[in-house]
Amino acid sequence: METLRATTLNDKVKIQANIDDFKPSTVIDFFNETVENFPSHLALASRDANGKWNFLTYQEYKNRVEKIAKVFIKLGLSERGVVAILAWNCPEWVVAALGAIHAGGVVTAIYTTSSTPACQYIIDSSKTEILIIDNLEQLRKINEIKDDLPHLKHIILLSDININLMENAILNWNQLMKLDTDDTEIEYKRRLNQIVPNECCTIMYTSGTTGFPKGAMLSHDSLIWNIKKCFQAMKRIEVGKEVLISYLPLSHLTAFAADIFQVINMAGTVYFADIKSVLECLQEIQPTVFVAVPRIYEKIQEKVSEKINEFNLIIRKIFSWSQNVISEHYFTPNSSSLKCDFVNHFVIRRIKEALGFQNCKLFFTGSAPMSIETKKFFISLSMPIYEAYGMSESSTVHCLTSHETQIHSFESVGVCLDGTETKIINMDGNGNGEICMRGRHVFMGYLNDIQQTIQTIDDEGWLHTGDIGRIDENGLIFVNGRKKELIITSGGENIPKARIENLVKLECPAISNAFLIGDKRKFLSILLSLKTEIDENLKPKDDLAPEAQKWLTQNSLNFSTLSDILSPKDEKIFKAFQNVIDRVNAQALSNPQRIQKFAILPNDFTIATGELTPTLKVKRHFVLEKYRNIIDGFYL
């Protein structure tokens, strides 16, 4: 029976409107179409132990997917059974994901940075039958909890680590790929024929900024339809010629959709890189499409700015003039392009080559808002960044910005994809209310959570996002924050924290994170983390980042480390940051929206230290607990 919502893996949902737009498709049909049309095109690239790139063609890719699918069946994966992947990005990751789906199962993913309890929660709630891991660190986590995972049948290790596999009851990936699977051929074909577009193919767990994550179930149709709609909205893409880098965690839907399914859709080549070295890999790989979270673009901006500042005054003035020429032409396309062409050829081209972006045609970002300053900076380098807005529950993208939308407004997230709908409910006097979306990209529901599913998808198929925003007269959508993240002071004032936090960061480039406090409090206060260098383990160092040092120098403060700032009781330090707060308060929409107190934290927020999720979203509950003493001190 087909229903509007689903909460079990055996459920099938009614495909929503626009069925004639793109015919409902399974992941299998979608993959086969590319393999049939581009069998010898390069699909996957990864380095071996010696640093040499190894490639798989689309035909070789498919052969491996079919092989591991049969292996999963041989190992006892049941129909609709779950394969979970707890590993860093690599060809085996995507082969395993597609293999699970081809075997009639469902794939889910766990962030490699997840704690042992978080791993246990996902494996247990999804009833994972086969778990794939890539190193001893993950094995140690699982060994602590495997006796409490009754549904887990097998653990597969991707790497050839020298451990006693039999003693640990671990299977080796490379050995499994050599198994004779002829006896599973009939069952494999039977399962393939049973797979339909309106059943679940993947469970994507939200990153959990407020507690344990929810498992969003995506159907074959919702995922593939969204991929095709995004492709339709993108311009300048050439099928069979695009190159991408996979470095953001595949356990997040943005990377999962882009690095696996959008690459298949465009018959492109994806290179697997380590997030620690992605900026160094750019020159070698030379991507044609680049996807990054805002923080990555900010790091590139800092790198370019730092390099330009090393040159003499004449070179800096030429660079500044070039930026102005490019920006002017972007916002007034009908203006003469002669100066723009000259600047692109003699100035901007060299910067792109130095970064590794000389072949890059499209830049995208998502998962978190990007500052207007960063957007303008990249436009001035002829590298406009297009922003995607969506969520796991909308199969990633619902809105996309473009050149046209950015001319109208930098603050909008663009217009919704063709074939989707957007409405605002419970609007206030300024037209702001909860953003709701509808279309074939809407997810099936939350696994084993009927109540939350009904609250999120209403009886007319509208997905209630929990985001607050508005739609202007041009159809542009603006997101102002999360419904649940509105701060309600003890005086009853509703305050959108995102607006104030972004203003603070805009006023002071030395600030990495601004964390507003005031829920059920008499007044607003804020925690500030400064930009610092990151060590090889992705933990914050004491050394201030160049951008932070530059701002301090401009304010007559000569400090190079965070401890230097925190140790002395220097009135100049307090005054410099108080001036930032004063400038933000001058833009407050009401007196309750003025910040009364602030504190500089002893370290920046990172994934390794627990303040950020793997997609660089702030874990509010974690920060509130970690800095409880400082926060309580504000209100004594």
Automatic annotation (TrEMBL):
InterPro entries: AMP-binding_CS, AMP-dep_synth/lig_dom, ANL_N_sf. Transmembrane segments: none annotated. PROSITE patterns: AMP_BINDING. Pfam families: AMP-binding. GO terms for cellular component: endoplasmic reticulum; membrane. This is long-chain-fatty-acid--CoA ligase. It is an enzyme of class 6 (ligase). Its EC number is 6.2.1.3. It comes from the Eukaryota. PANTHER family: AMP-DEPENDENT SYNTHETASE_LIGASE DOMAIN-CONTAINING PROTEIN, LONG-CHAIN-FATTY-ACID--COA LIGASE. One of its GO terms (molecular function) is long-chain fatty acid-CoA ligase activity. Residues 31-447 form the AMP-dependent synthetase/ligase domain. Keywords: Fatty acid metabolism, Ligase, Lipid metabolism.
